[in-house]
């Protein structure tokens, strides 16, 4: 008799950004895609390019501290968003959920 096939754990990625659209997407994922035992990766991409835009307060000549402060603020906001969405997943019954943060390169096109 053949051995039973092993069940593979699915890994699902859900992009989040704190918007109403992201909230709807997480709810839709739970209702339509999620299966018990899935491992869910909540991904939030941080894009620092707007902090480096010409005319930005952070880009004032000779003020690297302002740039660093702007980046830290964006990092803090991203962490807050990820914590909120992880809690939403737990509240919806998604037991295996991991936060994952991605940062853009300032020098890529």
From TrEMBL:
Cited Gene3D superfamilies: HUPs
Name this protein carries in UniProt: UspA domain-containing protein
UspA domain ranges (all copies): 12-76
């Amino acid at each position: 008799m053949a051995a039973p096939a092993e069940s593979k754990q699915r890994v699902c990625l859900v992009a989040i950004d704190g918007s109403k659209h992201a909230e709807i997407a997480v709810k839709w994922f739970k209702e339509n895609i999620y299966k018990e035992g899935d491992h869910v990766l909540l991904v939030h991409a941080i894009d620092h390019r707007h902090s480096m835009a010409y005319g930005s307060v952070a880009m004032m000549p000779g003020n690297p501290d302002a740039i660093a402060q702007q980046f830290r603020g964006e990092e803090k906001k991203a962490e807050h968003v990820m914590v909120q969405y992880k809690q939403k997943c737990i509240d919806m019954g998604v037991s295996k959920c991991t936060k994952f943060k991605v940062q853009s390169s300032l020098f890529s096109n």
